[in-house]
Design a protein that fits this description.
single chain, 451 residues, alpha+beta, five-stranded mixed β-sheet, 26% strand
Length: 451
């Protein structure tokens, strides 16, 4: 099928388009690269992802722990959100958007207004009413469901989720997007009829999380975790293993059981399944997801109830599930990148194909139209790449310099239109950044490869 399409492409490959859409060009990109926060030294950037994202113009610090997400990063973020949406919809999730500002009264009803501590951003309006900037939305969503009145068991399970900005007043924000005061999070809240059904939902969401990381090609681990301030009777975390991770994870060498170190409180930690004498291996991880089996902790407070098939009124059994969306993005860069070059999961790269035309005034300058026509051919005849091609039109720069910049930003496929494009075979230099392989292909072969 790909070969058939390839021959179709070759008929149009070098045909100029009468009405050419606007090309995405590097010269027009807003990308203030190499700008570090005021008063920050290069040596202060102990986290690779933070340093690379600042150096390459992917983020810009607005204040401590708060960042502008610049155009390339936002493109990657939107792609990640698309993957998350697909997997949440696959398990019956319904997307909504709850207010960032939550009334303090809701938080006081669960007593978290006092127990969550100074990390909660609070404010008062002109009428002296207290609010908070939501770091999470258990109170808000449970109140929302309860406000509908007692619902029928036929309406359950309900799986509501959102992907919004969250706020946490970190005492010492650090590591760029890995630990900030403002961040994007996917939070899902589920309502079931009983513990058995809630457990099924819990495991289905965890499986969806695993599928997300598998689709991204990211190695991850799932471990038993503490329920903390969220509460509940069961909790699991998802981590990307990394030396820069802040969480210490323990794994049983015999049965594979994994847990966050904070859940094992003995002086000589051992596997709770294998007992004393079992050996535990220690790794560090970056937490990117968390699941909580809440039970009736919140539904009891707000009376989120339903009518069972026997006519009796019962409390819903709840779960809540979070994914740190901006944290996944930064963590992926942390674990995939080299010291000097950004590497993305293939699905998240801001652009998939990066075309470098010849330098102006060089012997290869006549190949310039080939580069432009290649751009138009790809975006016209390969629908899934229509908005995925970037043309480096900075023809005053050498090919080598532009190639170096493209590699630093981690574009998966770099195509150089140089001297060989003017020869009889019209070969293009194609660099696969993730494998390091360079091949020479004609346009027909290139289109077949990237289709």
């Amino acid at each position: 099928m790909a070969l058939k399409h390839c021959w179709a492409f070759s008929r149009f490959a070098l045909t100029p388009r009468r009405f050419c859409h606007h090309r995405a060009c590097v010269s027009k990109m807003f990308q203030p690269a190499g700008v570090l926060p005021s008063g920050t030294k290069q040596s202060d950037m102990t986290c690779k992802s933070q340093r690379l994202m600042l150096e390459q113009g992917l983020i810009r610090q607005a204040s401590p722990g708060v960042y502008h997400l610049l155009p390339l990063t936002l493109r990657a973020l939107e792609k990640l959100i698309k993957v998350i949406d697909e997997e949440m919809h696959r398990i019956g999730g319904q997307k909504l958007n709850m207010p960032v500002i939550t009334t303090g009264e809701l938080w006081k009803e669960t007593d978290r207004w006092n127990t969550i501590g100074p990390e909660l951003f609070t404010l008062k309006d002109r009428h002296n009413v207290e609010y908070c900037l939501g770091p999470t939305h258990e109170e808000a969503v449970t109140h929302l469901v309860a406000s509908q009145g007692i619902i029928s068991h036929k309406q359950l399970p309900i799986k509501l989720y959102q992907i919004t900005r969250k706020f946490r007043d970190e005492r010492r924000p650090r590591f760029g997007l890995l630990r900030g005061r403002e961040f994007y999070m996917k939070d899902m809240y589920t309502f079931d009829t009983d513990e058995e059904k809630a457990s099924e939902t819990y495991h289905s969401v965890c499986e969806a999380y695993s599928q997300i990381f598998n689709r991204l090609g990211l190695k991850f681990v799932k471990v038993v975790a503490d329920t903390g301030l969220i509460g509940g009777t069961m909790s699991h975390e998802f981590h990307l293993p990394a030396d820069t991770g802040e969480d210490e994870l323990l794994f049983c060498l015999k049965c594979g059981y994994g847990a966050n170190r904070e859940t094992i409180h003995t002086d000589t930690p051992h596997c709770p399944q294998c007992g004393p004498g079992s050996q535990l291996d220690c790794k560090y991880g970056i937490e990117v997801g968390h699941a909580f089996f809440l039970g009736t902790k919140y539904s009891k407070v707000f009376n989120a109830s339903y009518v069972a098939n026997n006519g009796k009124t019962r409390l819903t059994e709840m779960g809540c599930f979070g994914l740190g969306v901006t944290r996944i993005l930064a963590a992926a860069i942390e674990v995939c990148s080299t010291d000097n070059e950004v590497r993305w999961p293939q699905l998240l790269a801001p652009y998939q194909v990066y075309i470098i035309p010849p330098k102006k005034g060089s012997r290869e300058e006549k190949a310039q139209p080939i580069a432009e026509q290649l751009y138009d051919s790809i975006t016209t005849h390969i629908p899934n790449l229509r908005n995925e091609v970037l043309l480096d039109d900075r023809s005053h720069m050498t090919i080598g310099r532009r190639m170096k910049e493209a590699r630093r930003l981690g574009y998966p496929c770099i195509v150089v239109v140089g001297r060989k494009a003017l020869e009889s075979e019209q070969l293009l230099e194609v660099c696969d950044v993730n494998t390091g392989e360079t091949t020479y292909l004609n346009q027909e072969q290139l289109l077949a490869q990237i289709v």
